[in-house]
Amino acid sequence: MLSDLTRERYEVFAKLVRRKAQSGRWLVLTHDNPDPDSIASAAGLAKVLRRSFRRQVRVAYGGIIGRAENQELVKVLGVHISHIRHLDVKKYKHYALVDTQPGTGNNALDGIIPDLVFDHHPVRSATRKVPFSDIRTDYGATATMIAEYISASGWELTKKEATAFLYAVRSETQDFGREFSPHDRTLFDELLPKADLRALARIQTPVLPLSYYQTLHEALEKLESVGSLVISHLGAIPNPDIVPEIADLLLRMRGMTWSLCTGVLNDRIYLSLRTTNSRADAGRLMRRILGRRGRGGGHGMMAGGWIEWPGSRSGSAEGLQRYLAQRLATILKKKPERITPIAMKSSPTPTR
Ligand SMILES: [Mn+2]
User: Fold this and answer.
1) Is 197 exposed, middle or buried (0-12, 13-18, 19+ CB in 10 A)?
2) What pLDDT, in 10s, does the model give residues 178-199?
3) Bridge partners of 297?
4) What gap in Å lies between CA 152 and CA 168, rounded to an integer?
5) 104-148 pLDDT, tens per residue?
6) Are strands 223-226 and 340-341 parallel, antiparallel or unpaired?
7) How many angstroms separate the alpha carbon of residue 142 from the centre of ligand 1?
8) pTM, 2 dp
9) Residue 315: is its pLDDT beyond 90?
10) How far apart are CA 71 and CA 213, in angstroms?
11) Tens digit of each residue's pLDDT (9 = 90 or more) over 204-243
12) Does 140 fall in a domain?
């Protein structure tokens, strides 16, 4: 379905793209460690720029495409997505950000003001300098917005694209268990009959590396809680996006309304915060926990971020991880000194 808003915004977007010289190459960038929403959105925007405006476009990301699900998604979609370190960013003439904004600290477009921004996270002050931005915080997924733009451009989604966009919306909203809008729901209904369900199953249940189970094991061994807040601090992690995955898993624990997972990679401590409280502002809370040394943000019920941890010079990572959890507990009016380990029994007591 195509909303009136998208119809209007598409005209403004089209005018801007047409004004730009045809010769200049475009760089469409996801957020770092891209999730399905970001990957599908980038591929979709690239399609519109190529097909409707005959532009030369490269899709790129920073960080790591870590989750096996997301690697499989890239394969199924058949999108050519480059790592930013293999590109000379300055060689591009035009830039677009999807599922992220300038100044968030979670994309590789450092110091460059993009021409286009599409996102569903709360608007950042730096985005006001962007010539064209479409920020819709009521949308559950950026991919839903991009699908509407594709539709406004007169193109249809291929079977592969339908599969990828369907997965993006499902994973971003946790199968509609998290914030979503009627637009996301409408897109879901439209895509389901078009999608390749076998390919979707391959994305959703991919083959997993041993490191996944090792990290999961560690996460369970290190469980802590205070009241309805469950916490797990990981040591070295194989990729940043295992952190939100574990935060999601922990939030499902009976009796819990908040979850925090942290992990260490390349001089950074990554954090993910989740809540079942639909009136919460997890993004703001995340920024409060991190203070000036870190960057982060998010939506109402989910947030992520990182804080600089320059190796052993600043004490143990675990010390900082514990400190961050204590800050969170304090803000949530739970007693930080009461954070205690949850013991995992090696064999559970049978219940009769
Ligand atoms: Mn998103």
Assistant:
1) exposed
2) 889 999 999 999 999 999 999 9
3) 304
4) 20
5) 889 999 889 999 999 999 999 999 999 999 999 999 999 999 999
6) antiparallel
7) 5
8) 0.91
9) no
10) 17
11) 999 999 999 999 999 999 999 999 999 999 999 999 999 9
12) yes
In one letter, which amino acid is 39?
Answer: I
CATH number, residue 216: 3.10.310.40
Q: What are phi and psi of 299, to 5 degrees?
A: -105, -160
Find out whether 118 and 102 touch, Cβ atoms under 8 Å: no
Give the bridge partners for 306, in sequence order: 270, 295
Q: Which residues pair with 303 in a beta bridge?
A: 273, 298
- Decide if 37 is inside a domain: yes
Distance 42 CA to ligand 1 centre (A): 11
- How far is residue 142's CA from residue 180's CA, in Å, rounded to a whole number? 11
Strand order in the sheet with 223-226: 294-298, 302-308, 268-275, 258-265, 229-236, 223-226, 340-341
* 64 and 176 belong to one structural domain: yes
Q: What mean pLDDT do residues 13-39 have?
A: 94
Q: What distance in angstroms lies between residue 318's CA and the mean position of ligand 1's atoms?
A: 29
Q: Which domain holds residue 232?
A: 211-341
Centre of ligand 1 from the C-alpha of residue 182, in Å:
16
Query: What is the total count of domains within the chain?
Result: 2
Cα 331 to averaged position of ligand 1 atoms, centre (Å): 26
Tokens of 172: 């971003």
Query: Domain boundary residue among 151, 174, 204?
Result: 204
Cα of 335 to ligand 1 centre, how many Å? 33
- How high is the mean pLDDT of the chain? 94
The contacts of residue 38 (CB under 8 Å, 6+ apart) are 30, 31, 61, 98, 99, 100, 142
Query: Does 115 map to a domain?
Result: yes
Distance, in Å, from the CA atom of 244 to the CA atom of 120, rounded to the nearest integer, reads 18
DSSP secondary structure of 209-221: -HHHHHHHHHHHH
Q: Is residue 236 assigned to a domain? A: yes
